[in-house]
Design brief:
- By secondary structure, the protein is of the alpha/beta class.
- The protein has a single domain, classed as TIM Barrel (Alpha-Beta Barrel), CATH 3.20.20.
- An eight-stranded parallel barrel has the order 1-2-3-4-5-8-9-10, surrounded by six helices. The chain has a two-stranded antiparallel ribbon with strand order 6-7.
- The longest helix is centred in the middle third of the chain and has 17 residues.
- Bound molecules: coenzyme A (COA) and zinc ion.
- Zinc ion (ZN) binds next to loops.
- Coenzyme A binds next to helix 4 and helix 5.
Length: 314
């Protein structure tokens, strides 16, 4: 199933602990602590960071200080910062703050979409069209990028198994709305229940049907069933060029009961380094950042590499 010759020379690691991870912590974290952790990730050589979300502070109080966090990193050289936005209000706030990459989530599963953003998939697709219009208006400047996160692409906590045809059905509606937009599409294993063969099958089928030059593909994985690293590897061997991961494996989804955090950045980095795949990240500094993140009160972490002696993890 996995063809070694498909091994990419380089993969984009997208660090999502500041968004997917921090949002899982109930007690508000001091802004300065969040900034310190994000700075440690920057210092480790992280090229892409999902810095947080511009969401309703009633829905996710932990993100209420996102404006201050973005301000602290504006102008940081060499790092692409993105932010999740659930609607045009969030997109406008994110663009005004200086963010140039928006992450918009639509779940493939109707029930999960309803729980997550309190609207139907059809209404979320309407929101996607509105955000695309907003991005086209910005075209005078450097055109912002759009990351479409397709939630529950493999499994839904409420509806169970999700087939590639269900993913396809949402993409059939989404892609015509996005003509001319610089786009990355992530298939998200929101619950961490996918297995590597399902990941390979989805990436193969979906890219056969929708692959084109101006679309890049990403995999967003959680490690609930211990498949996280294997899933990430199968994704990149089947066309994903970016992987969403969280240092220390921080997290869990408040709308996906039982799900653990994103697959730990350090665990995925260990596997990629073994294959000689370039990421630009310094393992020792990443482990220091992961330690800082793991010390945040109230967070749940899951990482193999943090448990082995440091000299053996390097
Ligand atoms: N940023 C800041 N505030 C926002 C906002 C945004 N992007 N979107 C809505 N709000 C505010 C509204 O202004 C309103 O404030 P008010 O009560 O003071 O007037 C309030 O939030 C409710 O707005 P409404 O449009 O009625 O939204 P809702 O209550 O139906 O919630 C979402 C819908 C999508 C805004 C909300 O569920 C949300 O932000 N979800 C985020 C989910 C998420 O991030 N999940 C993890 C990703 S996988
Ligand atoms: Zn997630």
């Amino acid at each position: 199933m996995m063809n070694p010759s498909n091994k990419p020379a380089r993969v984009d690691i997208v660090e999502v602990a500041p968004r997917d991870g921090f949002q899982s912590i109930y007690e508000p974290l001091p802004t300065a602590d969040k900034i310190r952790c994000i700075q440690a990730l920057v210092d480790a050589g992280m090229g892409r960071i999902e810095i947080g979300s511009f969401v309703s502070p009633k829905a996710i109080p932990q993100m209420a200080d996102i404006g201050d966090i973005v301000k602290a990193f504006n102008g940081t050289p060499g790092v692409r910062f993105s932010a999740l936005v659930p609607n045009t209000k969030g997109a406008e706030l994110a663009l005004a703050s200086g963010i140039r990459e928006l992450v918009y989530v639509v779940s493939v599963s109707e029930t999960h979409n309803q729980k997550n953003v309190r609207q139907s998939v059809a209404d979320s697709l309407g929101g996607l069209a509105a955000i695309a219009a907003l991005l086209r208006e910005q075209a005078d400047n450097e055109t912002p990028l759009l990351r479409l996160d397709l939630g529950t692409c493999f499994d839904c906590p409420y509806e169970g198994y999700i087939s590639w045809q269900q993913v396809d059905a949402v993409l059939e509606q989404a892609l015509p709305l996005l003509e001319g937009i610089d786009l990355e599409i992530a298939m998200c294993d929101t619950t961490g229940r996918a297995n590597p063969y399902q990941v390979a099958d989805h990436f193969t089928r979906i890219r056969e049907k929708h692959g084109r030059d101006n679309i890049r593909w990403a995999f967003h994985g959680h490690d609930t069933f211990g498949m996280g690293v294997a899933n990430a590897l199968f994704a990149i061997h089947h066309g994903a060029t970016a992987l969403d991961v969280a240092a220390a494996g921080l997290g869990g989804c408040p709308f996906a009961p039982g799900a653990t955090g994103n697959t730990a950045t350090e665990d995925v980095l260990y596997a990629l380094r073994g294959g000689g795949i370039e990421t630009g990240i310094d393992m020792q500094k990443l482990l220091q950042a992961a330690d800082a993140i793991a010390e945040l009160p109230g967070g749940q972490t899951a990482s193999h590499l943090r448990k082995v002696p440091r000299e053996r993890a390097a």
